[in-house]
Amino acid sequence: MNTYTAAGLRALALWVALGSTFAACAQTANAPASTQKLRIVGGLAGLNQYTRNEEPFWTKELPRLTQGRYTAEIAPFDRAGVPGTEMLRLIQLGVVPFGTALLSNVSAQYPEYAAPDLAGLNPDMATLKKTLAAFRPYLEKSLRERHGVEVLAVYVYPAQVLFCKRPLASLADLQGRRARVSSATQADFMGALGAIPVLAGFAQLLPNMASGNTECAITGTMSGNLMGLHEVTTHVHTLPVTWGLAIFGANQSAWQALPGDLRALLSHEMPKLEMAIWAESERETAEGLACNRGLPSCTAARKGNMTEVARSADDERRRKEIFVGTVLPRWLQRCNQRCKELWDQTIGQAYGIVAPLPK
Q1: N or C terminus of the chain: which is more exposed, having fewer CB within 10 Å?
Q2: Which residues share a beta bridge with 237?
Q3: CA 288, 294, 295, 299 torsion: positive or negative?
Q4: Cβ 119 vs Cβ 193: under 8 Å
Q5: CA atoms within 13 A of residue 263's CA, in its CB half-sphere
Q6: H or E segment at 8?
Q7: d(Cα 154, Cα 132) in Å, to the nearest integer?
Q8: 8 A C-beta contact, residue 162 and residue 224
Q9: Which residue(s) pair with 153 in the sheet?
Q10: What distance lies between CA 52 and its chain's CA centroid?
Q11: Residue 5 pLDDT > 80, yes or no?
Q12: 44 falls in which pLDDT band (50, 70, 90)?
């Protein structure tokens, strides 16, 4: 059984109460009734995935599509008092009937779910789509059968790229530099480049830069700009180290308790919302780079004056070598023999990359 802090227990109690309210509504789903309200836990607060897509869908589009018969309340998980690392467990328990879980958080306990967003695997959005297509059948089946979670959508955040204080011409120039990372797979990638990975949360990114603890940082192209990173760094490398995938899932009992017409509507509409979020993330990746450079096409954020470092042929060669020689083997070490089989049958098959035996 998972353990919780006092704050976590209070949050859990809150969501138990909300879940009980939802269950009471669901039990009367087939009875003549007025409106029914769903409670949704969305993605990260303040980012466009949430503000431009998730929140408007649940609070405006759902009532419009159903002529007001169904409504929803939504809160971003990082402001709902729910630990991101516990989200999958809370959906499984039904405490959060409908919630968004970052795969990077889930993979701390279930490393197999890190597979589609390993550092260096997806150098562009087209590759990421191919990777997810290869892995998604397993992801959906595993979450349904192991955790009782029905995957309704898979979301993506913009590309996570490298910002640095001092000039760099290629990835080779990272040798010896201390760089902020947010996951084990990013640390594997940066370490293989000769950099010194420093694991730090998003909120600690700028303080680490100010103190000199780091001089480079991996973060989103636009989120870096919105937090002011373009004001304290000079160069941004365009290679996506990772992206950031999240599943929007429903507790199976809660999903089955919904009226049939609502399940049918959500099954039809959630893929549209997913496509809109992917398109948003692709646009935001490009616009974030434009804003950091100060280009006229920047309209959604502050203009910087950074130097953009395009990936070279040597950078691309090193990315492939590091992924196969370091990132993939170390992921297998954190995982197990079953993960080798999983890789070889899904993503590895799509790219012709056979995973080495875990050591």
Answers
A1: N
A2: 162, 309
A3: positive
A4: no
A5: 16
A6: helix 6-27
A7: 9
A8: no
A9: 248
A10: 16
A11: no
A12: confident
pLDDT tens-digit readout, 271-311 = 999 999 999 999 999 999 999 999 999 987 899 999 999 99
Q: Which domains does the chain have, with CATH numbers?
A: 6-27+34-156+244-285 (3.40.190.170), 160-242+287-351 (3.40.190.170)
C-beta of residue 174 within 8 angstroms of C-beta of residue 212: no
Closest Cα partner for 308 from 282, 289, 284, 336?
289
CA-based Rg of the chain, rounded to a whole angstrom? Answer: 21
Give the model's pLDDT for residue 34.
57
CA-angle at 348, arms to 341 and 219, nearest 5°: 110
DSSP assignment letter at 233: -
As a whole number of angstroms, the longest Cα–Cα distance in the chain is 67
Q: Whole-angstrom Cα distance, residue 178 to residue 215? A: 6
d(CA 187, CA 174): 13
d(CA 279, CA 273): 10
- The structure's pTM equals 0.88
